[in-house]
Structure formats: C-alpha cells, structure tokens
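Team,

Forwarding the record for the chain on the shared tracking sheet. I've put the sequence and predicted structure together so nobody has to dig through attachments.
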Amino acid sequence: MPDPVDRRLVGFADAPVSPASDAAHLGSVRLEPGGPFEVRSTQRLTLIYTVGHHGLDDRGAMKVAMRFPADGGAWQLENPSAPNHVTVSASRDCDFRCRFEAFGNARPWFKALTAQVVGGCLRPGDTVTFTLSITLQTFCEDAWELRFLVDPCATGHFVEVTDRLSIPIVPGPPTRWLAVAPTRWPVGEPFRLGIKAEDAHGNPSDQAEAVLQLQSEPPLQGLPATLDYRSGTFAHTLEGLVGQHPGVHVVTVTDATGQLLARTGPIRLVTGDHHVWGDLHGQSGETVGINTAAAYYRFARDRAFLDVASHQGNAFQITGAFWTQLNELSAELHEPGRFVTVPGYEWSGNTAVGGDRNVYFAQEGRALRRSSHALLLDRSDLQTDCTTAAALFEALAHEDCVVYAHVGGRWADIELAHDERLERAVEIHSAWGTFEWIAHDAFDLGHRMGIVANSDGHKGRPGASYPGASTFGAIGGLTCFTVPELTRSAVLDAIRQRRTVATTGTRLDLQVHAELPDGTQLPMGTIHGTHARRATVHVEVSAASPVAWVEIRLGKDVVHHHRPYDDHELGHRVAVRWQGARYRGRGRQVHWDGTAQITGATIERIQRINAFNPDHAFHHEGGRLQWQAVTTGNFGGFDVWLGAVAADATLTVHTEHAQLQTSVVDLPVRVNAGGLGMALSAERLPDHNPHTRVRVSAPVDLREGTDSPLWVCVTLEDGHQAWSSPIYLHPAEVP
C-alpha cells in the first residue's frame, strides 16, 4: 500500500503506556479494497481487526482515526440510507457503543470513530468488522490514511495497531481549464505559461486530453501554435516565452473546434520590475496537512505555477528530523529566477500569549523556536522554546528574517506583542477566510504593516487551495511581490518595504501610488512625512474578470467608492450578497442557508458567487430560490438576471441571520446581522459589465497629528478581491 509520509517525521504522541511489550500482540488489521478511488466518490470499504494476545475486554474499545483535513463528512451509525453509514460487527456475540467525533483523537488524527465493547468480550483471534459506506474527501491524497488504535484492557489508553491502512485518492474528470501567466514582466525577459485542467473540486485532473490551440494577442516569441495535451498529464508548463515590446498580452487556449477553454489574465510587459506570485503559508502530512513536504513544494511549482513558496508547519509539531529535512528541501528546490523557496515555520502560540506568527528566514539552517513541545516526545531542546510572542521576537532580534501576523485556528494579537523591525505584514486572507479586521488593528495601534494573503492550506495544494467541504470557507489567497528579480533576498526586501498585494486567489495587475500637491510620487508601501493636508491616490487595475468596484481607503474608512459604470447603466441584474464571520476565533463560520422569492419578474439566468462547495445545494423553481452557503469573513451570493420587471416587482430574502423585503426598483438595501461584519444585501447591476481595466484617481484629506494609511481594495465581479499594501503618510516634523 502507498505510504508517502514517513511516520518518523510526524510530530505526535500516543498513549505513554501499552499492555504489550511487542506491538504485534495488539492484533492485526487490514483494509479492503485497496483503491485507488476518485475524490468525492462513495465507496464501500471493509476494515477487519483480528483481536490480539490480550483479547478485548468488556468496555475495551477501538478507534478508527483520520487526519484533520479529511472532509468526507461525519460517519454515522443510525441511518443505513444516509451518507457515511458505518456498521460494526464481531465474530462473537457482543454489542458495541459507537460514536464519531470531529475531535475524538490526538492531533493530527483528530477525526475518530470509537467502538466500545459492551455486553461481552472478545478473545484472541476473534474479528471485528467495520463496514464503511462512506463519501471520500474532495482532495487528492497519495495515501489517504486511517489509523487503528485499540484499548484492549479498558484502561482508557489507546495504542496503535502497527499495520498501515491507506489508499490513494485520485482526481475526477476535468471540468475547467486554466492558463496562468505573469501579470507584469520585463520586456525581453523569458517567462513561463502554465496550463492545466481541474476537476469539480479544484484538483488538477490527469484525465484531460486535447490538441490545444494557443494564440497570443499581440504575438509572443516561443509560444507554440498547438499543444498536444495527453491523458496522464496533471499540468503542463511552457518555458521561455518572450515579449519584445511593451504592452498588454493575453493568451487564449481553444480546442480543435475553436471552443474557448481558457484565457490568461492580462500580461503587462514593461521596462522595470517583476510581479511574482507566491503562497508562503501551508502544511504537509508531517504536521497537520497531507502528502509529503516534497510533494507540497512540487505542487506549488509544477501544478500551481507559483514563483515563490514556503512550508509553514506548526512548530510545536515539527520534529528535529523534519526540521532538518525541510531545510534540505528548501535548499534543493530553490532555483533563483524560476522558483524561490523561503525556509521557515509557523510559531503557533495560543492567542492568549500572542497568537499565530509566520517566520521566514533568508537562509536555511536557522534555529527552530517552538511555542511548546505539545506533540513532541523528544525534550532535549526544550530550552529553545519561546512560549510567548514577545519571547519569539526577542529570540529573533538578530536573525535575518521577517514575520507575518496571521489568523488561522488561533489569531494573532498584535497589541499584545509586536516588533516593527521583524513583523512587517498582516495576512488578511487565507482558506480560513477574510480578516480585514487584523489590518484595522494595525492601523489603530500605529503599526505600519504590509498586506499579504496565503492559503494556510492543509490539503496539499499550495497556490491553488480550495476549501473543500469542512472547516475552511474560502479559496486560499496569493501574494504578489514587486521585485527587481526573482530571488529570495528580493522577495524578503519586498515584504520589508511593503511592496505586496494580497488577493483571494486571483492574479491581477494592481498599481497604486499617492501624489502630493508638490508633485511628489509615492509608490505602494512608502512611509513619508509631509506638511501637505491632502494627497491624490491613483489606482490602475487590470484583471481577467470585470471590476465590480474600487475602494480607496484611509485606514478603516472608505473615502472613495468607484464603480466603472453610471446609474443609468443599471439593468435587470440583481446581486444578492451575504458576508461576515461570527467572531475572530475558530468557530467563525456563518451558515447562510436561505430562500428568496422574486415576484413581478421572470428569472432568465442565475450565477452563483463564491460558492466553493459543490455539495451545497442551490435550487431554482419559478420565482423561488433556495440554497446552502457559508462565509468565514468573506462574502458569497448570487446574481440573477430578470426578464420584464413590473413596477411593483419585489425581492424577499430569508436567512437565519437576516431578512430583507424590498421593491426591486428601490435597491440597494443592506441589513446588518451582528457578529463580525455579518450582513445581507441586494443591489442592481448592469446587465453586462465590460470593464476589466479601470483607472481611478481621487483626492484624500489627510489626518492631523497621526498616520494616514492610504490603501485600496478591488472587488471583481467573479467574487475575488485584492488589497494593496498601504502608503503611510504622517505629519512631517517641524524644523
């Protein structure tokens, strides 16, 4: 059976005692059939445990555990006709008391089914059969692993039976094609184009086969006219493309019949800096993710087409051997000019002592500073721990490194601890959701931070991280770094100088600068003292999707809201949106399951927005709509194109958290729903918005006596967002 993750590298600790001196005395277990199986398919698996030397006592128990990211759904024993039904039976008469818990076992194998023997006992050689009629997870895994643990003597201590249980989970058929290229690149310098097909759950599919027609307008040197894309290919990279003249290029991908399959975003060729794209935050199976760290990096480079990547395992789970391997991998795969790795780790202290931080080093081989040894049996380096964020900053004071504050399961308290020399950015979007509030915290505290986004992915897909069907509620983010060259030092300098743009996973060209009345031009990330009372903010955005709106912000306040169309262009398209989170912590998910009723108009077309889970139902019959949806600080919803609209046409929307009832002609309307930015809204839009390139300039009155952070948020019609790092203007000292 496949077994790609070396258990010796995984930080975890089982029961400290065992009834058996020889693990073989605990019995044996096997899993049938062995796969491979397609993602999100329903399978009937049989797990058979042969009882070991000690038997299985009355009130003794067994556990079947799986990793935290697994999102096939909770197993249940009550309803044979419902999904994920499990039965437990034995070769000898006895009963079982069973329960499934999302946190029923030690990290990283959190999810667990426990079967306790009641009304009998089992002898050595007896068998227990678990019949699993289950739905598999949404993401591919080289070896989806189950652990089988047993408590034969009813002590409450579970010990693993040593047989390894794993099956490969593979992608489904392709549902869409993608073409990925740089957003800004120097004229005459070679770049690469990535092409892949993804299945319905965002996995690169190896089942696509086509003769692809490639065309660039204007032409690109090195771009072939055709590409024979064969089954068995997960992704294809075309190297050495060159544009000889400044301007915007777009590459289209069609099939042999001319049907459009994919189109790159705008590729702006310039004389100057590069835009390089990275996901600097995610984990693999050696900690709380899946697959190996080597597979993680290769996915980032070869299937997500990233320029920059970093592995960020929870430090309290990183063994000494794994830290050594991570540094070796980072050095081995680092290829300046093509693919940059950044060594580092996630310091994962509880929020009460500072909260999550990402640490990035300029070179390999630096010391690992853990928040604790919570999952590590080796205590030989316990004295190197930094148990608070303040202690971490003190330990890093003389390191060549940068630090991000981020929001994951734990959130970073940047008021409790912050070091402006090291902590240069806040991560405001990841697969956990959108967290503009952490940037607002920074503004309130006077911290001058850049803005970044990453996936914080646990599903082995850095740079192309989809949330799946469980804890996560958003597509993983990306960061665009403005650099003179693709090197590690240039990327770290971009972070220090706040030359970063954060997105919810899209790649666009966003240019922001401020102009003072004396003509001084201040690029993104600048910190500048001025006697001026006003600055003009200039924004240029070029994207693959039409621009819905651009917000110019002064700290937490929106001071200019620009839409690329006028009110007279509003048509018969109505946008319904829900957004927000319950609170800052782990249980932030908001379920927006609801219904809508439209009267006085017919529905011609519906487009869902930010609906990431294909399992979430959406039904439409007549003028009634019904859906399931979730947000975690981000937003979702749908656009509906109406036919003839009567003067008295109405829209009614019901959700658990908010309701609205309004005349269609009276839109827009917004209902706040408490929590952390929870709201329900509806507005009219143009029937068609062609504006993929937008320029905005607006004057902003600066604050007196304090910082004026000027930054921009762009929202696209496809639901993606992007944020620039601020320009920090402050009052100049009087000579």
